[in-house]
Amino acid sequence: MPRDSTSAFYEDYAATYANRTRSLPKQQLDAFLAGIAPGGAILELGCGGGQDSAYMLSQGFNVTPTDGSAELARQAEVLIGRPVKVMLFQELDADSAFDGVWAHASLLHVSRAELPDVFARIRRALRTGGLLQASFKAGEAEGHDGFGRYYNYPSREWLSALLTNGGWQNLAIEESDGGGYDGKPTRWLTVSAER
């Protein structure tokens, strides 16, 4: 895979990024976990420093953490004490293997052209009735941030149409104001949907 500016950022700044002060999205995590049977199998796409996986493991879930950056995966392994699979979203090839997929601030780096295929792969990886939760930085057109990271910046309407066309059920998109690693005010879209 060519080393694009997004990949380069996460490889070069893995330790700084993984060990930054970050508040756990506990409210969203708890709401997501409430829809999954105790001990259920969860795939985390883009686990970053591993904090969300560590929390889900502490709640008794069977978590498979993944990240596209080998350096970030190493950082996460230190925190959670188990292997992290190095994998791009486009390489997901599971079939009915998970009860939930958690993709917090990760799928926002997938190009708009590749997003339909990635969502189809996620849907296939879930069991019937399995849950997806993903968050995106809202916008109208794809672009890059000050660190050179690519973002797809979808609108609520664009994302809703994409998921509906992809066959997802019980789709909900919540909007909220927050921030990101770049320290800039951010409008977030949090998607929950069911296979």
TrEMBL record:
Record keyword Methyltransferase present: yes
Keyword vocabulary terms for this entry: Methyltransferase, Transferase
SUPFAM superfamilies found in the cross-reference section: S-adenosyl-L-methionine-dependent methyltransferases
Gene3D superfamilies according to UniProt: Vaccinia Virus protein VP39
Keyword flag Methyltransferase: yes
A molecular function GO annotation: S-adenosylmethionine-dependent methyltransferase activity
Domain Methyltransferase type: 43-132
GO biological process, one term: methylation
Entry protein name: Methyltransferase family protein
